Amino acid sequence: MSHPHAATTPSRLRAGGDAATSPVLRRAAFASFIGTFVEWFDYAVYGFLATVIAVVFFPATDTRSALMATYGVFALSFIVRPIGGVIWGHFGDRFGRKSTLTLSIFIMSSATFVIAFLPSYQTAGLAAPVLLLLTRLVQGFAASGEYAGAASFLAEHAPDRRRGIYTCLVPAGEAAGLLAASLFVALLHALLTTDQLQAWGWRLPFLFALPFGYVGVFIRRRLEETRHFKSLEAAHHVPPAPVLELLGKHRRQVLIAFGGTLLNAVGFYLVLSYMPTYLATELGISETAAFLGSTITLMVYLASIFVMGALSDRLGRKAVLIACSLLFAILTVPLFIVLSSVSFTGLGSGGFLAILGIWALFGALLAMNGGTLPTLLCELFPTRVRYSGFALSFNAANALFGGTAPLIATWLIGASGSKLAPAWFLVAAALVTLLAIAMTTAGRAGSTLDDD
């Protein structure tokens, strides 16, 4: 579809070639990176400290019940994400990516900072978990606009032929946040006693959210709006109601994006957030070994993301995501079988090296998806509704199956008595994603962003 004002848009903007100057692109890249770093540093800290938070915020019951309550709060904070996705998507598509992202990181980092000052159950009783839930809801609402907005912002700044390698900086920020959280929590476990960790040590990482977030606010306020959004404004094609247009004209793309995100949602939280707890509680691995393994796996994941982003520029997003889904569907259960049969006898043991190898392989496989999916989701939707389409589908999938993944995995193990239950959950997610990606024509090699 062509627009009557299309001639007013410079051809180099519509082509998405080299319109963005290097300084502009570098600032956009760092601004997108820092926001997702803050977002996932918080989520990872909460996940890695789940066993400590369970003791601090919930009454003394059996360990599994307290842990499930902790993961329940984690899951409930995701309920607001689709709602937040609609709201942030509306503002992002209606008023621009820059201002929306500046506000989202301010609210998100402030809410995370507040968690450090919440009272414990011993001090405030039931008010403690209620306050924790409310704070997580605010944080989840703000975060629901961050990932989609940062990816859209960066994809619209990047040259067409290098969109994959630039946009993968968003999941790289995600991985860096996880890695920083893993290192921080490992350091806490190494330096503090259990009593110190439960009394005050768990609060320390949440304090860092505020300075990180305010750096992001400072940078984002000085950014240029994307060329794609500016071209819409110049042509007076900014939609008055982006979500209504999205659901009216692009329902198929929303369903494809939702299904395409499922493996990312489940895999991310099982492999990179829940796995240390799984190894410690179900397989008897020491917490020190679990966090060391998590750190190494995150390094593999972070390095692999850039490889996959570059590969997707050559082969196309669709090809990489289909290959990833097939590999997860085929390898997950066998790898979990080997994992559950390994005997852990210490950090230097062959058993630990086997666990580390399997975990790192999962990290590399997940990077095939994580380093590629954001660019595909940007290419699925036109500029008019890109922020809304990405945010709604991505947040809905993560609300239903991502944030709940640790809770579902813990429940499945308890209900079935099988330590392989999380593996079958991951296989099911891979098959749904495989079907969704196979249905789209977007994401092929040489794809461009649609300005219609």
From TrEMBL:
Gene3D superfamilies: MFS general substrate transporter like domains (1.20.1250.20). PROSITE patterns: MFS, SUGAR_TRANSPORT_1. InterPro entries: H+-coupled_symporters, MFS, MFS_dom, MFS_trans_sf, Sugar_transporter_CS. It is a multi-pass membrane protein. It is found in: Cell membrane. It comes from the Bacteria. Residues 28-441 form the Major facilitator superfamily (MFS) profile domain. Keywords: Cell membrane, Membrane, Symport, Transmembrane, Transmembrane helix, Transport. The chain crosses the membrane at residues 40-60, 66-88, 164-188, 200-219, 254-276, 288-307, 319-339, 351-378, 390-414, 420-439. Pfam families: MFS_1. The keyword Repeat does not apply. Its main location: membrane. Belongs to the major facilitator superfamily. Metabolite:H+ Symporter (MHS) family (TC 2.A.1.6) family. This is MFS transporter.
